[in-house]
Amino acid sequence: MNIISQEDIKKRIQQIQQHLVDQKADACVISSLVNLYYLNGFIFDGYMYILPDQKPMLFVKRPVYIDSDRVEYIRKPEQLPELLAKHNMAMPKNVLLESDVLSYNSVKRFQKALDKPQMRSISGFMRELRSVKSDDELTQIRKSALSHAKVYKQIPSLYREGMTDLDFQIEIEYVMRKEGSIGTFRAFGENMDIYMGNLLAGDNAQEASPFDFALGGKGIDPLLPLGSANKVLMSGTSIMIDMAGNYTPYMSDMTRTFSVSDLPEEAQRAHQLSIDIHTEIIGFAKQGIACSDVYERTMEMVVDNKMEQYFMGTTQQAKFVGHGLGLEINEPPVFAPRSREILQKNMAIALEPKFVLPGIGAVGIENTYFVTETGLEKVTLCEENIVVLR
Questions:
Q1: 118-121 and 94-97: which strand pairing?
Q2: Is the pLDDT of residue 292 over 70?
Q3: How far is CA 327 from CA 138, 167, 330, in A?
Q4: At a CB cut-off of 8 Å and minimum separation 6, what does 1 contact?
Q5: In 10-81, which ranges are E strands?
Q6: Strands 387-389 and 256-260
Q7: Is residue 241 helix, strand or coil?
Q8: Where do the DSSP E strands lie in the chain?
Q9: Please, which residues have CB within 8 angstroms of residue 105's CB and are 6 or more apart in sequence?
C-alpha cells in the first residue's frame, strides 16, 4: 500500500515546478531511488522527467507493470529525444540533475542525448524540500519510533554472559526483523556503508572510522570498518546501541547505553550530562533558531563540565551534535558550528551528544524530535538512564 498521499505528491511536484520557473530551467531529471519514492510513492529503475507546466513523464527501464499514459519504457538515455518528440515536448536547453548521486558518465550521456543543454544541480533543493515533513511523514516517523522503542525494551533480555558484541548485535537484529524492520539503512553521502546499525562496546568506541557517523568502531572486517569487533563483552564497560529505526520508509534514530555491571562515577556523570543537554535543547531549539546556535549551546555545557576531551570521540572527534532524518538517516539540517540552516516547524531531527571514556566506552543518548514553534517534541520514548545487563 502506498503510504504517501496523492495530495503530498502533487504539492511536491508543484514546488519543483516552481523551482524550475525560478531557475529558468526547462526540465529536471530525477533518478535516485529515494527521490523517486518521495515523488511517486514507489521506486523504479529509470528517470522522472519534470517540466514546469505539464504532468511529469516516467521513463522506465524496469519493472514492466507500471501502467499510465505518462509512462514510456526505455533502455538507455539516448532514446529520450525520440520519446520527447512522441509527446510533443521540445528538447530542453537548461536541465537540472541530481548531481550528488549521478556519475560523471551518466551526466555526459544525458548531455549528449539531449543535444548538450546547460546542466545544473537540483540536489540541494531536493534535500531542502524533504527536510520539512508533511503530517503523513511525521506519522510514519512516529510509528517507526514506537517499534524502535519496543525493540530496545527487549535488549536486556537478549544478553547472556560471555557473549561477544557481535553475538549481541545479531540477537538485536533478529528482534528488529521480527518487529518489522525493513532492513536497509539509508544514509546520504559518499562512502557511507552501514548495515542495520552500530553497537560499540568498551574501547572499541575509540576506534576511528572513515565514515561520517558520530562514532566509529573497528568492525569485523577491513571492508566495513564500523561497529562491533567480535570481542567478548567485559564487566565494567559500556555498550552503546545505535540500531536503525527503519520500521517504515521514514526512519527514527535512537541511541541508548547499557553496561556489563555498574560503570564508574565518571561514566555516570558523562551520561547524565548527555541527558541534561537534551533537556536544555528541548526548550532552546524551536522554529527560527539557528542550528549553529544549538551546537554552540551544547558545547558551552560540555566545556562548563570539563568534558570536551571526551565529547563525540577521542582519537577522532565528530564536529556535529545532530542531524535531520526522514527517508534517509542524515537529511538536513545539520547541527554544526558552521551550519547556516535555520530550524523550521515540522523538521524531524536527531540530537546525539555522546562521550567516549578510555577504558570504559561510549555513553550518552540520542533521540528523535519534531521541531515545533515552541520547542522540540520527543518521539523516541524509552529508558534513558544506563541499563545494567545481568
A1: parallel
A2: yes
A3: 11, 29, 9
A4: none
A5: 27-30, 45-50, 57-62, 71-73
A6: parallel
A7: strand
A8: 27-30, 45-50, 57-62, 71-73, 94-97, 118-121, 197-201, 237-243, 256-260, 322-324, 331-334, 348-351, 354-357, 361-364, 367-371, 376-378, 387-389
A9: none
DSSP strand E in 232-321: where?
A: 237-243, 256-260
Number of H helices, E strands in the chain: 9, 17
- In the predicted model, what is the mean pLDDT of residues 315-319? 89
Residue 284 is classified by DSSP as H
The arithmetic mean of pLDDT across residues 128-143, rounded, is: 97
Q: What is the pLDDT of residue 190?
A: 73
Nearest to 110 by CA among 124, 122, 98, 100: 98
7-11, 60-64, 259-263, 349-353: the lowest-pLDDT one:
60-64
DSSP-derived letter for residue 366 is B
Residue pair 120/23 in contact (Cβ under 8 Å)? The answer is: yes
- pLDDT over 60 (residue 2): no
pLDDT of residue 1 exceeding 50: no
What is the spatial distance between Cα 141 and Cα 237, in angstroms, rounded to a whole number?
32
Closest alpha carbon to 243 in 303, 319, 168: 168
pLDDT of residue 192: 76
pLDDT of residue 326: 96
CA–CA separation, 276 and 71 (whole Å): 53
Query: Mean pLDDT, to the nearest integer, of 188-211?
Result: 86
What type of residue sits at position 331? E
The DSSP bridge pattern shows strands 237-243 and 197-201 to be: antiparallel
Look up residue 113 and give its three cell numbers. Answer: 542525448
Q: Which three cell numbers stand for residue 218?
A: 573497528
